[in-house]
Amino acid sequence: MIAGVIAVQGDVSEHAAAIRRAAAAHDADCEVREIRTSGIVPDCDVLLMPGGESTTISRLLADEGIDDEIRAHVEAGNPILATCAGLIVAARDAKDDRVSTLGLLDVTVDRNAFGRQKDSFEAPLDIEGLDEPFPAVFIRAPLIDTVGDDVEVLADWEGNPVGVRQGPVVASSFHPELTPDTRLHQLAFFDETEAVVPTEVDG
């Protein structure tokens, strides 16, 4: 499996480590490629779009011609996991003209709805498809405020959706890559998750 991590900004190394651990849990070989220019996405089986600053990410994707490659990847039915700012960029509408969204998810989002960096928190989150709560890390997280008919809500926090799936796209308001728990990566890229949750982060 070739996993591409959109590497224009964000938790690139953390996502790379997480997908390697998720693949290992399924006895799958995984080659990780960092994507900063066009021409790499078409060779990837799965994609990961980390957080960061959504206006910057969307601008760099457009400048490098990566945006259309990501759309083609999803249109072909290939999976992608988008987290935090990655969710904002993947959405239909970020309600901010500075963000050129990809329209991969029929959702609208409210950027930084959960507050500033100092308002970051971790919470056990019930996620559809996982047997045990997930240790979700929220850092300047966006709020999903509307979802289309074809969007499945995987998780919510205090009545607000924070995890969704539409076709091959899985997206979260939180940062799964910042925990040793790879179950969300497994949920996005494999048919089922392993029951055993790792307790240590391996490089």
How is the secondary structure organized here?
Blueprint: E1 2-6, H1 12-25, E2 31-35, E3 46-49, H2 54-64, H3 66-75, E4 80-83, H4 85-90, E5 91-93, E6 105-110, E7 121-125, E8 134-138, E9 143-147, E10 152-157, E11 160-166, E12 169-172, H5 183-189
Parallel strand pairs: 1-2, 1-3, 3-4, 4-12, 5-6
Antiparallel strand pairs: 6-9, 7-8, 10-11, 11-12
Structural features, described:
With 203 residues, this protein is of the alpha/beta class. It has one domain (2-189): Rossmann fold (3-Layer(aba) Sandwich). Helices cover 24% and strands 29% of the residues. The protein is built from five helices and twelve strands. The chain has helices at 12-25, 54-64, 66-75, 85-90, 183-189, and strands spanning 2-6, 31-35, 46-49, 80-83, 91-93, 105-110, 121-125, 134-138, 143-147, 152-157, 160-166, 169-172. The strands form three sheets. It has a seven-stranded mixed sheet with strand order 2-1-3-4-12-11-10, with helices on both faces. Strands 5-6-9 form a three-stranded mixed sheet. The chain has a two-stranded antiparallel sheet with strand order 7-8. The radius of gyration is 15 Å and the shape is globular. The relative contact order is 0.18.
List keywords for this structure.
Rossmann fold, seven-stranded mixed β-sheet, alpha/beta, three-stranded mixed β-sheet, 24% helix, globular, 5 helices, 203 residues, disordered C terminus
